[in-house]
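Teaching assistant here, posting this on the class forum so everyone can see the example we discussed in section. The complex has two components, and the goal was to see what a joint structure prediction looks like when all of them are supplied at once.
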Amino acid sequence: MFSHLIRSTRGRKNLASLVCGALAAGGLAAAGVSSALAPGAANASSHREAPLISGQPQYDTTDVYAFVSPDRPDTTTIVANWLPFEEPAGGPNFYRFADDARYDIHIDSDGDAQGDLLYRWTFHDQIRNGDTFLFNTGPVTSLDDPDLNITQTYDLEMMRLRNQHVISTTKIANDVPVAPSNVGKASMPDYAELRKEAVRELKDGTTVFAGQADDPFFLDLRVFDLLYGGDLSEVGRDTLKGYNVNSIALQVPSEHIRQSAGQPVVGIWSTTHRKSASGDWTQVSRLGMPLVNEVVIPLKDKDRFNASSPWNDADFLTSVTEPELPKLIEDIYKIEAPEEPRDDLVSVFLTGVKDLNQPPGVRPAEALRLNTAVPPTGEPKRLGVLDGDNAGFPNGRRLTDDVLDIALQVVEGELVGKKNDLGDAVDENDVEFEKSFPYVALPTSGSNGPLAEAAGNRSQLDGGAELTSGSATDDRTVLALSAGAAGAGVVLIGTGLAWWRSRRRGRWS
Amino acid sequence: MKRATRSVWRLGAGIVGLACVLTAAGAVLGGPDEVPTAAAGAVAPGAAPGPGVRTLQAHLRAQPRDAGAWASLGAAYVEEARVSGDPSRYPRAGEAFARSLRLRPDGNAEALAGRAALAAARHDFPAALRDADRALAVNPYSERGLAVRIDALVELGRYPAALEAARRADARRPGIPVFTRLAYVRELRGDTKEARRVLELARDSASTRADIAYTATALGRLAWSQGGYDEALRQCGRALKAEPDNLEARECRARALTGKGEHTAAIAEFETIVARSPLPGRLVALGELYEVSGRPGPARRQYEVLGTWTGLARAGGVNPDLDTALAAADHGDRTDALRAARAEWQRRRTVHTEDALAWALHRSGRSEEALPHARAATATGYRDAAFLYHRGMIERAAGERAAAHASLTRALALNPAFSPIGAREARRALDGLEAS
């Protein structure tokens, strides 16, 4: 409209009245003009309004798992996931590990809250034709298929530490291929084959994998609405269903990581470091136990927690001994909070449970603690230790452990005589896990997934896949964000859930 | 502008102002989102990572006590305004932050940092700095707090403090928001090499289309400002591949084409851009291209639109920003330009306010008075051809012939595309200096 006016030969007055007319009609379509009414709306060269939000989830850890391998009980499997909410459909979408990051798994073999072993993954992009917008140029049938335009490989180093200083570094893997994003049936007719190719056994008896996987975490994010007095009549749906993550997995002989057969408990956590502009490495994410950063750590301390190390976890001790969550539940739902200080939570979240997964002389710190000597069970129970199955959470964490329900029940006093049956009514992952390493399920294909379902299976472009912005913006993300923002998200599950379950099961009516 | 027409503009401005007021008064969660169509077109899908306004509104209708979501909604409004240039988003953002703070008065770093970002967007930089500091007191790692703090210090002209803040932010939260700001602080100090290196880090880590477009455009703009027109075209082409409709990237391409002497292509590109968003800098660039192509009529019409823009702004009770002041000094009402530049300079002393004031004074015939300001504008080492050209012309008018020769030569050597008309004037002035 404006250009037409500008290029027309009308006089000024005419232009003026036309513009006024347009504006009067409420059509602020001459956006520029309306902008003039706001200082700063016009992008002055002097004030560069750079984005404040940047979608970079490739540095965010979502979950860490550690368990004695069910099919190889002399080994321990560790899985760590990054890049939550990978939407497979509506793309094709592909998701990469960052190449300016260090993805680390720390192992503390003696319970002193200092890593003794460090596994470090670093990723490298390989682009065949220089066009970074093109993921593949035809159907991909192997990891070295020339049709795969963008591939990633990784190096894996194992470092031994003493007093938090590296004393030796061994490169145990070099240029191992990453299993790519599953962009769809047309592009990747046999994705399972690509997964298989990405599993590599190393010389020292370690097996490794990195690549896309179905997000193994299962929960109904709507439980977090309880925090605001929400209505729980609708929980029971796995809101992570159909989303993928980028997984790193490691299967290592347990004797490599534990202090001795007599002290078989190891502490495990992950960190992500990002290279700063000055060339230093900044820790931007840290995760061991599930839900700690959502449930235990107050919102204002989340970033600080992500930047901290277990050695200093005394800083967050009161968040554990005097947790906010039960008080919130008490406020809203009148379920009495257990008495403080909560030493029961200290044992679950910080030291390990005595006679199960607590190393001698343990220094309290947030880490996943696994007793590698507890043999795996044939029939894992989703509530793990709470249900008498000592091979599960909080002794390590298996993919099938229902950590949301466990954490909630523990926080509400399950271990101190306040028996409860809280949860989010999502008891298992929507996809079955694999029977062997890396155990995580194959990623949801780009031909499927939440967006595709919502849109009624859209057809994929055959062959060539192009980049789309990998930021999911549907309501699940929001819930996830506000869940994170809730800090005490899980909280609410408390009574609402109880109420919801009672309705479903007709127990407390 | 003639008095008669001006009153017509006043009327228009009143209507626009009223429209804005009406929009702003709408409840934050009120009915359907009436995004101006042009603005809507300017927002590429997926432009802002994180949840969009609508999603958050839907969530908040169901969960109005979610303080975190209110802060996110405010941030989403600020981001929308940044991308679309629609100021009606600001009051809504302010209301969302206020609600968030009412729900969680203590330890609410998100709402404080969001409010800081809003103040910066409204050019209230002292308030932006205050709120950023408050947010950082609660959460020293707040990415938004760290980023806005750098913005505020830059816009207040506190460059050493800005560099310090950017270094600290880089150590705490390396990432695209901080990298882009760190690069700009470096650029303002004349370290364009380091600015480019840091922007390349940002671009290489970008994975969303919005981030790729923003960082590649920033690199293109930087290359253009140093006379690297081919490099600018390459970078902006990359940005446009990610977001074909990105106006900043298109403007960057148009300016690079200008630099390569491809005026016809540059004119076509600018015509498309001003049709969508007639910002002062763009109107001037197009007008000057018409002028050097021997088309005074169309050129004059661009400057007229510019005049109406300023009139509208002033009638709306808004001081025209520095871009508008500079444009007016060259192609519009010089009295207006001087008033706007002086008002801004009273508020904050930055290289940009010094330059705008210097140029507005010079164009009003007060070159002696302008000289110290022109020199202050270039004192940080910032390598900007327009600043050097302004300084050179002012030096010449003040009788400082050798200095004028040096400044004008530098301007033309650095980036002769800074302004087609300015470059022509600079060459003429140099010829004159060399002939006498």
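For the discussion questions: Residues 141 and 453 of chain A are 26 Å apart (CA to CA). Chain A has a mean pLDDT of 80. Think about how each of these relates to the inputs above.
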